[in-house]
Amino acid sequence: MLEQRLKSLALYDLLPLPRFGPDLSKLNFDEIFYFIKPTAMVKHTWREVPASIKKTFEKLGLPQAERKFLAGVGGQYDSENVYHKLRERLERQGVIFSDVETALKTHPKLVKKYFGSVVAADDNKFAALNAAAWSGGSFIYVPPGVKVIESLQTYFRINAKSLGQFERTLIIADEGSQVHYIEGCSAPVYSSSSLHAAVVEVIALPGAKIRYTTIQNWSKNVYNLVTKRAVAEAGAEIDWVDFNLGSQATMKYPTVILKGPGAKTNILSVAFAGRAQYQDTGSKAIHLAPGTTSHIVSKSISQGGGRASFRGTVKVARGAKGARSKVECRALMLDAKSRSDTYPALETEEDDVILEHEASVSKISEEQLFYLRSRGLSEAEASLLIVNGFIEPLVKELPLEYAVEMNRLIGLEIEGM
Prior knowledge:
Elements: H1 2-14, H2 51-59, H3 62-68, E1 70-77, E2 80-86, H4 88-92, E3 96-98, H5 100-106, H6 108-114, H7 125-133, E4 139-142, E5 151-157, E6 164-165, E7 168-173, E8 178-186, E9 194-196, E10 199-204, E11 209-218, E12 222-225, E13 227-232, E14 237-246, E15 249-252, E16 255-258, E17 264-273, E18 278-287, E19 293-302, E20 307-316, E21 324-333, E22 339-348, E23 354-363, H8 366-374, H9 379-395, H10 400-415
Parallel strand pairs: 1-5, 4-7, 5-8, 6-9, 7-10, 8-11, 9-12, 10-13, 11-14, 12-15, 13-16, 14-17, 15-18, 16-18, 17-19, 18-20, 19-21, 20-22, 21-23
Antiparallel strand pairs: 1-2, 3-4
């Protein structure tokens, strides 16, 4: 791992910043703290977690969620995991759910086999930075045929100013297995900028099913520059549900590589861009095998001069006969100061395919607002009702408790218009 870190650091120095998307010139890499240690070791019972950290996570509902809904919970505070817990029943079935540092010691062969197999260090500058400076994150392995019905969750918290958080998440679902992983992120507001440059690698082996859900609500001083990618082998299915609020700038394009025959993916994403925010998000589906299918649905809301961009790419390689893909992009602008952009790309080297793309941009009409206000709603309440209706098809894909939280967060954004 040390050799990998050093090679990745050399690549980071050579690779350029992205030449598209948000302006990153104000991000000063020399002012970033690349590691802050919150506690001496990972805790496995809630009472062992230091009181100051416990207080933060209790406000976020982490222990309550574990007791009520989840099969396993992890918590990362600044640069390290401070808490990890998995139900004993799943441990007996061979399920592994830990931080990556622990997995390196307890399951080195698994980590060595899959670490960097989906996102190489030379993929982009921030992937190289993560490969050099990574700490924390989650490692999940589900054995063949095991179905984890309840969700596994990790919550990431940036609590120090000028911090770089570089968690590394690695999920492997073996043949015929099933798992749902939920990731939440937040940070308080500071005057200086922080950097979140995570890497996520997801591997679904033949016949496996993985659902990956992200709800990110960073403060508006965070640069959220992440690389997230998955590989689906024959007959595997990967569902990606992605919600992006907050941050000063986000660059995130979850990618699923459909490597085996009959593999399929559904990617659903929502981005909310408020005042002085740039949400540059999108999805990619790479069809490498015959009979593969992908469905990408993206919705964005912009207000107060915010900018939301969608970058969607579908590629069909030669030999991927019978591949099918549909991309739906919907944008809602709440005022005349905001902006929405769509950058679609459909590339195919095969004739026997079906590719569809559709996009639309709309605004809240005066007639809708007038009708709702005539029923006693304020302008903010009316706007929120329309926005909730706009994103409802995607929010309903969340577990109930997270759907409620998502609607509450959207409401707070609307109130801040």
